[in-house]
Specification:
With 55 residues, this protein is mainly α. The longest helix has 28 residues. It is elongated, with a radius of gyration of 18 Å.
Length: 55
């Protein structure tokens, strides 16, 4: 995870880096990861309950 934070931090504009801490970047990445995981789980649950088209 540290390499990802470093990569994101390095790509932020200097003005943003001055206003934001590395901990905030890491927290934002954690939230994005969690949201993505929740969305993937919901998609999996929806596809399991959706009847398929029978030919």
């Amino acid at each position: 995870m540290e390499e990802i934070v470093d990569a994101v931090w390095g790509r932020l504009p200097l003005t943003i880096r001055r206003q934001t801490s590395r901990a905030q970047v890491q927290a934002s990445l954690t939230m994005l990861t969690l949201r993505h995981g929740i969305a993937m789980t919901r998609d999996d649950m929806d596809s399991d309950t959706t009847p398929g088209i029978e030919s």
